[in-house]
Each structure stands twice: as structure tokens, then as C-alpha cells.
Amino acid sequence: MTQSASRPWAHKYLRTLCALLCLAIASIAHAAEQHGQVTFNNLPVPGVTITATQGTKKFTAISDQQGNYIFPDLPNGTWKIQVEMSFFSTLTQNITIAPPSPGMINPGIKWELKMLPLDQVLAQTKVIHTETKPTVTANATTPTAPKPTTPEAPHPPEEAQESNDGFLVNGSSNNAATSPFTIAPGFGNTRKGVTSLYTGGLGIIFDNSALDARPYSLSGLDTPKSSYNLFTAVATIGGPIRIPHLLPRGPNFFVAYEWTRNDNAYTLTGIVPTLAQRSITPIDPIAQALLALYPLPNTVSDNGYNYQTGVLAGSDQDSMQSRLDKSIGRRDELYGNFGFQSRRSDNASLFHFHDTTDTLGMRANANWQHRLNHGLFTTVGYSFTRFRTLINPFFAGRSNFAADNSIQGTDQSPTDWGPPALVFSSGISSLYDSESAFNRNRTDAISPSVEYYRGRHNVTAGVDFRRQEFNYFTQTDPRGTFVFNGIASGVSDFTDFINGTPDTSSIAYGNPDKYLRQSVYDAYATDDWRIKPELTLNAGVRWEYGAPITELKNRLVNLDVANNFSAVAPVLASDPIGSLTGQHYPNSLLRPDRSAVEPRIGVSWRPIPGSSLVIRAGYGIYADTSVYQTTALQLATQSPLSNTLSTNYSATCPLTLATGLVRQPCTATTPNTFAVDPDFRVGYAQTWQVALQRDLPFALQTTVTYLGIEGAHGVQEFLPNTYPLGVTNPCPSCPSGFSYRSSNGGSNRQAGSLQLRRRLRSGFTASALYTFSKSIDDDSVLGGQGAAATGATTQDTSTGSIAQDWLNLRAERGLSTFDQRHLLVSSIQYTSGMGIGGGTLFSGWRGRILKEWTASAQFTAGSGLPETPVYLAVTPGSGVTGSIRPDRTSAPLYAGSSGHFLNAAAYTAPQPGQWGTAGRDSITGPGTFTFNASLARTFRIEKRYNLDVRVDATNILNHVVYSSYNTTIAPPVNGVYDNPLFGAPTSANGMRTLQTTARLRF
User: Fold this and answer.
1) pTM reported for the whole predicted model
2) 790, 846, 838, 624: which is closest to 146 by C-alpha?
3) Which pLDDT tens digit goes with each residue over 247-302?
4) Which of 127, 303, 861, 882 could form a disulfide with 984 if both were Cys (CB 3.0 to 4.6 A apart)?
5) In 3D, which of 385, 360, 366, 384 has the Cα closest to residue 323?
6) pLDDT tens track for 764-802
7) Residue 477: strand pairing partners
8) What are phi and psi of 472, to 5 degrees?
């Protein structure tokens, strides 16, 4: 008998140990690091509580002996950072966290504490001596509502870092001994062992294909796994700039540089024409040339896919961030930062068209703060940002496909060479390539503000002004788009294709250089009123005004619309007088909306003395002044300044691949494809929130929250003078072929959540958050899906979906695309013994090995997001495909088979003369599931050297989660709906990845 066979317990022990180690390997995806330093009179302050809040999510950190703090994995989005310490004023600032890769290095925030007036210091001292137990004070966090302009789904809360222990962390030596927040003895100049004024760090982040799981195959084909590496190097250094006899007390600086070289492997799946289809004759010569761009099938799957390929895309990035601050005397301080990011990447399509994208962004700001007296401060800031994007398509300068194959009407600029886009209703993969672009955006902003502290009031007031420039050199659709759905031949979409007769065609190019300008203003005032130790009121008001965007050379075109859309005529910004209505339009062609007054109020109250119960409530109005950019960009690409067309096949006006992109005398559609209501209003949302928090035994805490959001003036988009399938045009002389944008949409979101959290104690913390919510709207942006989601449209719907029935927009009311009815997020974190004593349960070398490890894991599960069923037919009179919905039958929807999760028999073609009865967003997509984990430790090499090591795993169970289903119903061919992909998954989320991070700090 072998030794291994005689010890079965050893195998069982090793398997158990490996399983535990796998569960300990952790990470929180889609998060980024945020850090900073807290000082007072330029001296670092340890033990300060820093809280990051976003809606119901909250993370807490404590500054170390150098005054530094860090949130290692703060989820993306806008966060309110609050800095608190006894006897000092509470500091707050809103920041935006960007994705971790690619993204600039965050240089951190410099916080300068301000001592409270003497009467408030004495009041705090009295409160501290009369407290009977360490509880969270009522004024610790005033509710801050999120800033949506319309109801939004919150990001999944990331609770792995959460502690929110306040006094417990700062004041309990026992707690600090077993947590990562140990406070070293000494304060300011009494710190021991500090011999250098400079701090820095070196770090690497590494991942290799050998450590990651194979990408999931939708077709079942065993595609070879590509080899790739993901590598990031980071270097930071900071400290004072001092030159003896020349600059003895120079400014403090911080510089960080990030160098990333990544290769990313993807598996792309689709449907390509079969050998039998390719052998059909006769075939149109242009169709033959386009067909040659499609690869041959290489697999057969139950769910309809017949082609799969692996692609490798590179992504290189260099970014730098720097910060400089200098105190001048006792009353003035200057500080600012500068950063840049350069990213080069290439993307490959199913057809192996490799497009490259090159972006360069830079940002700088400078601030001056002046203290007038102990309670009055003024700050003036200036910021500058610039972002450049360069996109080079695969065919640019390589092959003039249109001219070589006699396709008329396309843009002949070498940067826009290439084949037209093709869309098929039967599920054949769309043929497309990126559009060439050279875009430069710039923003200059100035922000003066005043802070006033007196008694129980902390008043802040200020104004902001931003001048924004959007400089584009790009075309909307220079190569044109053809859609095939079988209407022309009555047989199939592929038959229409080989006959060279598309069912719809569209094109838009001309006027490539567009110089859009916008000014944005706001003014605000807020008062943080500490009424009593147990009651805090935060009240304020904000006014925002974003002027409608203008074009530097007045090259914008809208439509002057007669009553009931009976007639339209172009109106130009260079001559803004409507020829039909006689109205005078401003240069932006949109009338300004200056009514965005936004009152906001929040209260935090402990109603029962000595109890841990805290009630927080808030109400606010939030406006969206950024709604004009996409509208102005479309107004800048309209006839007569541009060559635009959107039309559909008819027996009296047939289309061909050769001439379908050229306007024909027989068409009755308008040359303009887009218009907007000149009285377009800025959307806003009213939000209200109530939260009850209470401590429970065993270091537990529970929070119950209700959130309501009501949106108004949402975006709606429809197709005037269109009509249902199967009827004669009721108004042949009425203008059609364009979409019209208005601001009459509404939305509503109601959400309730229950959170149970175990406070950080003995190194262990955990939390579970369940949210039940419902969101509905008739807003084309919040509706989100439909034609824009399927890619099956001949017009630009990048801002959302187009309504089915232009005379009944209320029929668009349905679930919002982010409506996730159920969401459960739970997290767990354990840190082995450290700090005082250390050594966890062991001593000696065992203790040194096992101490100070932090293992965490996060589990997220939720119901699926809504999706819209689409009947891929031309909306009569529009030239647009993809805005019609099918009729719902009595067949069960979620009864698909052979790799299909939806049943095609649940839908049928709309009845002649009627619109489809299926509701918008009436399909529930696949549920969500994630399980991520991490394992980390800081090794203290010497007094000033620390090595941070972290291993991150996403989807540690390698569980397959589909992202969405194909919900396109094709027109029937001989009574059969010819889309083999309906109900099949369109893509899968990433499989398991393993990433290692090592950072040396000194």
C-alpha cells in the first residue's frame, strides 16, 4: 500500500484547505481606489473618520499616522466624501469614481481641518462627557439623496470595506488590536521612528491567461484559448519640495504614474450565410461582393449559432497625476493638481475588422483659499479639462469598397471608405465597421465659494460657471445602412439581399466639422444647522442653467412644424425664422429653460435619548442640464447642410443596392431625418428618502430605507405621420421619414431596502442588503431598449428607443430597463490578528505567518432586467426598422427549448391596421449572479517599508451568467418566423479571472 493510500485524511484535508483558500481569494469588480490625506496646519492628523456615501451605500476609513486614508475598492459613481473629527468642522466633497482600468491614477484629496469656534468646542466636550454609551451621533451623516435626473437603478452596493464604527474604531484599543485600523501611538511631531519627509510606492498588477478560465462559448464550439497578459505598473512619490537657502519651506507635492499593457481575449459568436445560401443564383453583383466579406460557418449549435471565432484586442495606457499645495502665511493656501491619460486600443469584430482608438485626456485645476477670520473662509477654483478621441476604421484609406462596386451616394473621403452596414431580420450577423472620428472636447470652469461657521450653523454658498466646447470631425453614417426583412420579395430577408433589393436604406454625411458650444451656470447655498446634539437639519437651494448648445458657425438645422405635423420646412440657425409658422428661433434653435430651481432638505434625528435609533430623511429636486449635446449633434447633420436620407421599399419606389442611398424622385419622405421640439424642457426628478437605523445585540446593526423618485420632462421620441402595417397611407401628402424629439416623458421609482450588518469586531464584519423596487416610465431614454438595443434601425437612436404609435405615447409606459425587482448583496470580511499582541491564535513563527491577513468575499444575486420584444419590420412611412412590437399570444413565454430560453410562439405578427399589443420591456431577462473574493496582507518589512499583496478573483465559481436574450421577431416566411436566435442568449458575462497586486510603500 502506498503512503498516499494509507492516509486518506491527508487528501481530504488538502481538498478542504484548497476550497477554503479559493473562497478567500477576493475582489470587488468595477471598483477603484480613492485615497487622500488629512492635515491641520500642514501636519498630518491620524484617527480622523472619513465616510464615503452614495445613496444607501456607505464605507468608512480611518486616517493613519501620516494622515493618509484609503478606500481600496470604492464602486464607480458619484460619492459624497465626509471628513469628521471632534473639535473640527466637518468637511464634505462630491467626487466621481471612474472604472479601475482604464483610468487615471487618483492622486487623492488633500483635506485641511479647520478648528471649530470655542463655543462649539465646549459644546462638544459637554456632549462627550454626558454620553452613556458609544453610539453613532445623530449628526454623523445627514441623508444625501442621489442626483439622478430621472429614476435610476443604484449600483450594486459594495460592502466589503464597510465599517462605519465611528467612536468604536477610534476609541477602543481592543477593537484596534484586531482590525486594520490600528492607531499607532503618537500624534504629529511626537511620532516615533519617522526619519523621512517623503512617502512613495511601487506596485504591479498582473494577470495571465493561464490563471483565467476559458471564455464561455455560446455555440458550444471549443475555440482555442488565446494567450494574453494583463500588466500594470504604478509608481508614486510625495513630500515637501525643499532647497536649502533657496526654498527652505517649499510646497508639498505628490506624483503618481501608471503604465498598463493589456491584451484581452474575446469569443465572438454569430450567424453567417451557409454554403447552400451562397450557392443561390443568380445573385446581384454588389450582393456577391458583400457576401464575400462574411466568413464561412464553422459550427452547428442547437441555439442557432453557426460561427464562432476568438479575437485578441490590445489596450495600452499611460497616465499621470500630480498634486501641489502650499500654505502662505496663516491665512492663505494654494493647491492644485494636473493629470493626463493616454490610451491606445484596437477592437476586432466578428469579421476581423480591426479598428483602432486613440484617446488623450488631461485635467488641471488650481485653488486659492483665504481665511478672513476664525469662522469665514473663501475659496476660488479654476479647472481645465481636454479630451481628444481618434478612431481609425479598418477600411479607412485601405479600400474604397463603394466605388469599386458601383454603390452610389456614399461619402468618398478616404477616412470613410468601406462597405455599407447590413442588417438582417433572420438573425444573420450585421455587417458593420466603426466611423472615423477626430473629436476634441474642452471645459473651462471657475468656482468661487464662501464658508461661514457661526454658532450651530455651518453655511456654504457659491457659484460655478463652465464653458464647454465639443469639437467633432466625424460623420453620422457616411457609408449608408441597408436593412433586409423579406418584404420586397415576400420570401425572406436573404432573398431580398441576393436580389439586391433592400427594404430600407439610410445615409447621413456632410458637414463633418462641428464646433458646439455651451455655457453652464449654477448658484447654491446650504446651511448645516446643528439644532441639538440629537437633531441636525441640512437645508439649501440650488439653481442650475445649462444654455442650449449653439454651433460656432451657426450650422444647425431643425424643422419648423405646422399644426399636427401637416407640413414641415427646414429652419437654419443662420436664418432662424420659420417659413411655415413665422416663429423666431434662437441660434441654438431651442428656447432656453431657466426654471431649474432645486430646493433640498435633510434631517437626522435621534428621537429617544440613550437609544441607538436614528431617523434620517431627505427631499430634493435634481435637474439634468446635460440633455442638449446629443440633440445638437444630430441637428448639425441635417439637410441642407448634410446629405441625409431615410426611406423604405415600395412597389412604386423600389430600392437597389446600387442606387438605394441616393434620393429618388419617387420618394415622398423629407430629406431631414431628425427634429426636436423648440420648447424642449430640461428634465428633473423629485427624490425623497427615509431611513431608520438601530443597533442590535452581538454588534449587529439594521437599517430600513425607503426611496422614491418621480421624474418629469423626460425625453420622448416618435415618428410623425406613420401608420400600422397592412393599411393604406392615410395622409400621402404629409411629411414623414424623420423622428421627432420632445420632453413630455415621466417616470417613477419606488424602492425599499433592508440591511443587516455586523460591525467590525475582532477583525470580522459582514453585511446583507436586500432591495425590492419597481421603476416605470414612458421615457425613451429610460425605456432604453427596442431598436437601439437590437441595432436594427436605420436612424440614430443612440439616446434611446422610438415610440411605436406616435399618436398614443402613453402606450409606451412600461418597466424601465434598469427595473430589477429583487436584489440581494451580501459580503463578509475577516482580518486575522494584528496590532497589539498580534499573532492571532498562534505565537512564534506561526503567528507571524498567519497574522494580518484580510479575506473577503461578496455575493450578489438579483432578478433579470426587462427587455423589449421587437418585430423587425419597417414602420410604414418612416424608413425606420425596429420600432414595432409584435402581438402577444396565449403561449407561455418562458418555455423555450434547445438552448432557447424564450418561446417564439408567444408572439405573432401585429394584426393588419393595428399596432402590436406586446408591451415595452415586457420580457424579463436572465438573472444576475456574481461571487467575487479577495485575499490581502500588508507585510511590514521595516519601520518605513510596507509591502501590500492582494489576490483578486472575479466569478470565482466560474458560473455562467447570460447578460441578455435575443428578443427580435422576424416577419413570417410561409407562416414561419425566420429568426433562429429568438430566445437564445446574446452574450455571457466574464468567466473566472485571477489578478495579483503587489505594492511597496515607503
Assistant:
1) 0.80
2) 624
3) 778 899 999 999 999 998 889 999 999 999 999 989 999 999 999 999 999 988 88
4) 303
5) 366
6) 999 999 999 999 999 988 754 433 333 333 333 334 689
7) 508
8) -110, 140
Spatial CA neighbour of 797 closest among 882, 924, 886, 712: 882
Q: Is the peptide bond before 102 cis (omega within 30 degrees of 0)?
A: yes
Instruction: Identify the H or E element spanning 10.
Output: helix 8-24
Contacts with 406 (C-beta within 8 Å, 6 or more apart), sequence order: 285, 286, 658
Please report where in the chains the cell 409584435 appears, as a residue: 886
Check: CB of residue 426 under 8 Å from CB of residue 496: no
Q: CB neighbours of 626 closer than 8 A, spacing ≥ 6?
A: 546
The single-letter DSSP state of residue 431 is: B
- Find out whether 504 and 881 touch, Cβ atoms under 8 Å: yes
**Amino acid at position 923, single letter:** I
Q: Which of 785, 776, 852, 856 has the alpha carbon at shortest distance from 816?
A: 776
How far, in Å, CA of 678 to CA of 675, rounded? 9
Q: What is the dihedral of CA 637, 640, 646, 650, to 10 degrees?
A: 180
C-alpha cell at 689: 428618502
- The DSSP secondary structure of 28-47, one letter per residue, reads -SSEEEEEEEEEETTEE--S
Phi then psi for residue 406, to 5 deg, are: 65, 40
Residue in 466, 387, 454, 436 with CA at minimum distance from that of residue 119? 454
User: From CA 310, how far away is CA 268, in angstroms rounded?
Assistant: 6
Residues of 656-694 as b/e, b for ≥16 C-beta within 10 angstroms? bbbebbbbeeebbbbbbbbbbbbebbbbbbebbbbbebe
Residues in the chain: 1002
pLDDT at residue number 972? 73
Predicted confidence band of residue 11 (pLDDT cuts 50, 70, 90): very low
d(Cα 182, Cα 33) in Å, to the nearest integer?
A: 20
Q: Which pLDDT does position 778 carry in this prediction? A: 92
User: What is the CB neighbour count within 10 angstroms for residue 894?
Assistant: 11
CA distance 176 to 763: 9
- 219 and 306 in contact (C-beta within 8 Å)? yes
Grid cell in block for residue 415: 477616412
3-state class of 766 per DSSP? strand
* Burial state string for 325-334 with b = 16 or more CB within 10 A and e = fewer than 16: bbbeeeeebe
Q: What does the pLDDT read at residue 78? A: 64
Can you tell me the distance from the alpha carbon of 606 to that of 619, in angstroms, rounded to the nearest whole number?
19
Interval 74-119: pLDDT, tens: 665 667 788 877 667 778 776 766 444 333 344 567 777 776 654 4
The whole-angstrom separation of Cα 220 and Cα 443 is: 48
* Separation between Cα atoms, residue 777 and residue 714, nearest integer Å: 9
CB of 752 within 8 A of CB of 771? yes
Which residue matches cell numbers 470565482?
A: 956
Question: Could you tell me which residues come within 8 angstroms of residue 557 by beta carbon, excluding any fewer than 6 positions away?
Answer: 570, 571, 572, 573, 589, 635, 636, 638, 639, 640, 641, 672
Ranges assigned E (strand) in 762-852: 764-777, 814-815, 822-831
Q: What is the pLDDT of residue 768?
A: 96
Closest CA to 154 of 705, 969, 576: 705
Q: Which three cell numbers stand for residue 752?
A: 425599499
- CA nearest 742: which of 776, 710, 717, 779? 717
Pair 878, 719: CB distance under 8 Å: yes
Helices H / strands E in the chain, number of each: 12, 51
Average pLDDT, integer, range 193-202: 74
- Paired strand residues for 870: 968
End-to-end CA distance of the chain: 54
Task: Count CB atoms within 10 A of the CB of residue 99.
Answer: 11
Give the position of cell 488631461.
362
482: number of CA atoms within 13 Å, CB side?
Answer: 32
Pairing of strands 993-1001, 199-208: antiparallel
Is the CB of residue 95 less than 8 Å from the CB of residue 110?
no
Q: How many CB atoms lie within 10 A of CB 806?
A: 21
